[in-house]
Design goal:
The structure is a homodimer of 325-residue chains. Helices cover 37% and strands 27% of the residues of chain A. Chain A is of the alpha/beta class and 325 residues long. Chain A has a seven-stranded parallel β-sheet with strand order 3-2-1-4-5-6-14, with helices on both faces. In chain A, helix 3 (75-83) runs parallel beside helix 4. At the A-B interface, helix 1, helix 4, helix 5, strand 13 and helix 11 of A face helix 1, helix 4, helix 5, strand 13 and helix 11 of B.
């Protein structure tokens, strides 16, 4: 079988997840890792060529580079940079900036002849797909996206910056009553605090004023002030033992009416014990699609909305028609 | 706005559903109905041109014909026939025959230059999509499809043929325990009777031997013998009042493991108060895709696995990136 040669750019949580995912995808092979700290990564990775992120990799055939960095600082720089050299896949998730990032990647793609799948993952990504499908199948419907129960890394980081906080882990929790109302076909307008609540586990610094820590977190603008937030103080050991995993998940619900008042409800749900490992798997499926689109001579930026689902699958179109229809 | 001109072939439950759906899709317009009984349909439909199914329609511009007949007798004949004249969409749902039907439609398409979206609907169709996505995102996972609670028209028809039965309505009901086991991440192998049970409401003929009716239904090969089946006798009036709707639905569950034993569960669920009306809406979205693919010069047979999701949406790619990602 012709293997798809994959390079990773970045070797953190998602990069390690992609490395694992590639082992389960027998049509792919990890051929290179590009990182800012090649010395360290070489200690962990024996069988793969490790390069500094600015090093040339011309000796090896790289079909698709998967950008495993963060959306704040890494991808906005690395996307356009690696787009010059490779087909790429990334998980750029700053929703408001997706249109302009798409334009930038698309224009580089048209010039250099590559395929770039941007904003892949579960949200944006699969959930985007579900919102588009729900809206297409049930016009004039209402849509609701719930996240959780799961760890929000952005909110954890924000809580960690509060004075007196040694470590923090923030969970997003969907409000069960809201989910149930939508599931039975109601279509209310919810305020933010009616959709989700937040629970923050905090290891306080010795001697910290826990009451002001609690207040500083719960009233933090943008991150917490629009939600009901519970802050719980725990020990360092409890943090390590009970909160070291990165579970997440969520629901996309579309609620519409057809004909004489017939309620039609569509729901997509994912329940993930490891958010970065699942995201990694989605990135690998998108890398396969990028490889195939590129082989067909396509060039440009793509979101998951622009990719026929069959391209994501390791199976042939014939097998899919025979065994999955 | 340029409207997509739609013709219906057949005017039963699904045809009426498509007529309703087209009203909610402002980029489409119903321009013709082709039917075996034009006289009757003309009485119901005043503002649309109604033709006999074999009549010529050359005077009107038809962008896509939606075949609204059944998979047993209508579509296998009408698909190839109308493929000669139009882009088409159909809901051919005889799973085992999809590969050969695809080949037939594809070869006509290549000759005549049309686009044919086959086997659209929710299963096959959306559920096929979810099985492919689940398998692509979680390699080496287990998949489960549950149907119901809803009316199975095939099983209702089969029960109606039993001696002593005046009318029958068969419901497929997923076994809640099985659903729950999969939802918590177990991956058992189920026998058919562990996944679904059947409940059949029967209006018996006067003087019928209800015990033998019960037995004849419950032991019917293929349809009922592999399931636990409950037969309930009701009055004609109760049948009309309580069982005239055609609700349905189901779940596609994908259960996989990544990394060090992290369970990842994906679930798609639809809960439909009207199965034919929802199917109709999916057909309309696919007609939009067929129209756009055809405008781009594509030709061939397509399943929903071959269509980039954005093509199904009434919104532009820019709007989708801005508002749905």
């Amino acid at each position: 079988m012709e293997k798809i040669n994959i390079a990773l750019v970045g070797y953190g949580n998602v990069g390690r997840g992609v490395e694992e995912a590639l082992k389960l995808n027998v049509d792919t092979e990890l051929v290179a890792v590009l990182t800012r700290r090649p010395e360290q990564v070489r200690k962990e990775l024996k069988d793969v060529q490790v390069f500094h992120i600015d090093e040339k990799t011309e000796d090896i055939q790289i079909d698709v580079a998967i950008l495993c960095g963060g959306s704040k600082e890494d991808i906005p720089v690395q996307g356009p940079k690696f787009a010059e050299r490779f087909n790429t896949v990334d998980s750029f998730d700053t929703h408001a900036e997706i249109p302009s990032y798409f334009q930038k990647m698309d224009s580089i793609a048209k010039e250099r002849g590559h395929v770039h799948v941007i904003s892949a993952g579960w949200d944006p990504g699969i959930f985007s797909l579900m919102r588009v499908l729900g809206d297409a199948f049930l016009p004039q419907s209402e849509q609701y996206t719930f996240w959780g129960e799961g760890v929000s890394q952005g909110h954890s980081d924000a809580a960690r910056k509060v004075e007196g906080v040694l470590d923090a882990r923030a969970y997003t929790i969907p409000i069960e009553q809201a989910v149930q109302r939508v599931r039975i076909g109601e279509t209310p307008e919810f305020a933010k605090r009616e959709l989700h609540k937040r629970m923050v586990y905090v290891v306080a610094e010795e001697g910290a004023d826990t009451e002001s820590v609690r207040k500083d977190i719960a009233t933090m603008p943008h991150y917490y002030d629009e939600y009901d937030t519970e802050v719980l103080f725990i020990s360092k050991e409890a943090m390590l033992e009970e909160h070291s995993k990165l579970p997440h998940g969520g629901f996309v619900l579309t609620s519409g009416v057809t004909g004489e008042g017939n309620k039609q409800i569509l729901e997509y749900r994912c329940q993930l014990e490891s958010n970065p490992e699942f995201t990694a798997n989605v990135l690998v499926a998108c890398a396969r699609a990028a490889f195939r689109l590129s082989k067909e001579g396509r060039k440009g930026a793509f979101t998951m909305l622009d990719i026929a689902p069959g391209y994501l699958s390791p199976h042939s179109a014939e097998t899919l028609r025979k065994s999955f229809m």
